[in-house]
Specification:
The termini are far apart. The protein is α/β, with parallel strands linked by helices. It has helices spanning about 45-50, 70-75, 80-95, 145-150, 150-180, 185-195, 195-215, and strands at about 1-5, 25-30, 55-60, 95-100, 115, 120, 125-130, 135-140, 220, 230-235, 235-240, 250-255, 260-265, 270-275. About 40% of the residues are buried. A hairpin with a 2-residue loop joins strand 10 and strand 11. The protein is built from seven helices and 14 strands. About 30% of the residues lie in helices and about 25% in strands. The longest helix has 27 residues, at about 150-180. Strands 5-6-4-3-2-12-13-14 form an eight-stranded mixed sheet. Strands 1-7-8-9-11-10 form a six-stranded mixed sheet, with helices on one face. It is globular. The protein has a single domain (about 1-275), classed as 4-Layer Sandwich (Purple Acid Phosphatase, chain A, domain 2).
């Protein structure tokens, strides 16, 4: 264990908006996971727009940043994916502390835990202390995925079905953009309609919260299951920062230590916050 102590007008605020049009988000800490660079499902343009619009002291990359599994099946790496890497390295070079916690899709990088590359620290997991003194266990979360542990075959089948859903998601949203509609996640919609998926998600959340409690933490911050959430499970705050394949979400800590989930597509919106009267967007000055 290592310790690491906007809604705008749609026509003006797009994934390709000019830098002068972007609001500036000043945050203490940003958590991003499940980007899946190297896969066709990655929403790299939305992520780039977010990264160019946020300033923070610490940036956690909470696993599955690069999808080595997908790249082994079929190589895919457009310029936008290179731009994401360059932007992350640029933030680290300019003084943002960048902590990379590899996940299961980029587990090869776990061999380099304890090392730094381009000012980016690689950790197995971390303890993050918020501005208000709460301690959060930060990890990707794949160690708690009972499907992977119990049945690799079921995981294999589910992975290929998920690939099809992501293919459908890309084409549905291509049509929606052509018709002037905003982004809508097909995968997230289908998850919400499947009782078994919801049961699995609930069990996953409680397993992580239970382990965080055992470790004496106030909360846990993870990714892995592509379901953004902030919820109190008994005395533990469970936070999942979502993904940049389905939901395009990030978890943000403001200067006072308050946590919010932000969705960033054609426009930005706070989708969930815990025990706070105001959103964490503290500076809209361009």
């Amino acid at each position: 264990m290592q310790t690491a102590s906007r809604s705008g007008d749609r026509q003006q605020r797009t994934a390709h908006a000019s830098k002068t049009d972007r609001p500036v988000i000043r945050a203490r800490t940003v958590f991003i996971s499940d980007v899946h660079l190297g896969s066709r499902g990655c929403s790299a343009e939305y992520l780039l727009d977010f990264l160019h619009s946020v300033e923070c002291d610490t940036l956690y990359l909470v696993g599955d940043i690069i999808d080595l599994w997908s790249m082994q099946r079929s190589f895919y790496w457009p310029q936008s994916h290179t731009n994401v890497i360059r932007t992350l390295l640029g933030k680290a070079k300019r003084g943002t502390r960048v902590i990379y916690i590899p996940g299961n899709h980029d587990c090869t990088f776990r061999e380099y835990v304890g090392m730094q590359f381009g000012n980016i620290e690689i950790m197995q997991d971390a303890v993050h202390e918020t501005a208000d003194g709460r301690r959060f266990w930060v990890l990707h979360g794949d160690d708690f995925d009972n499907v992977i542990k119990a049945s690799p075959f079921l995981s294999y089948l589910g992975h290929h079905l998920y690939d099809f859903v992501l293919w459908l998601n890309r084409h549905v949203n291509s049509v929606r953009r052509h018709c002037g509609f905003s982004y809508w996640s097909v995968a997230a919609f289908l998850k919400g309609k499947m009782s078994k998926a919801m049961t699995y998600i609930a069990n996953y959340e409680r397993a992580l919260a239970s382990e965080a409690r055992r470790r004496g933490m106030d909360g846990v911050i993870c990714g892995h299951i592509h379901r953004a959430e902030i919820t109190k499970l008994d005395d533990v705050l469970y936070c999942n920062d979502g993904d940049w394949v389905e939901s395009c979400t990030t978890l943000i800590e403001d200067p006072l230590g308050r946590l919010s989930l932000l969705r960033w597509t054609e426009h930005a919106e706070v989708v969930s916050k815990f025990d706070q009267p105001e959103p964490v967007l503290v500076d809209h000055a361009a």
